[in-house]
Amino acid sequence: MSFIAFILLGLIAGAIAKLILPGRQGGGWLATLVLGVIGALIGGWIGGAVFGIGYEGFFSIQSWLIAIVGAIVVLLIWGFITGRRGAKR
User: Fold this and answer.
1) Are 11 and 33 in contact (CB under 8 A)?
2) Domain range holding 34?
């Protein structure tokens, strides 16, 4: 998969992850999209290291599932980090 396609996949996966997760996540849409790209990277790395799967191509359902799950995990971690800091105010 090309670099541009990978970035686009991560951006869309971040938007989908934000729609799936209930409540408000810290950061705006731009932060969510960047975290989606990071989540897609982490999801691909974990998928390859643990399960032996990776990105097949832009239109592969496997690639989309890996990216979305990775984005959800990163958004959850980000929510825990920013949620605790926001509660102290």
Assistant:
1) yes
2) 3-83
Q: Is residue 49 part of a domain?
A: yes
For residue 42, pLDDT beyond 70: yes
Spatial distance between the Cα atoms of 5 and 84, rounded to a whole number of angstroms: 34
CA separation (Å) from 43 to 17, 22, 66? 13, 20, 5
What are the backbone angles phi and psi of residue 62, rounded to the nearest 5°? -60, -45
DSSP for 25-69?
PSS-HHHHHHHHHHHHHHHHHHIIIIIS-----TT-HHHHHHHHH
How sure is the predictor about 35, in pLDDT bands with cuts at 50, 70 and 90? confident
The pTM of the full predicted model, rounded to 2 decimals, is: 0.77
Please state at what angle helix 3-20 crosses helix 29-46, rounded to 10 degrees. 110
- Separation between Cα atoms, residue 89 and residue 77, nearest integer Å: 20
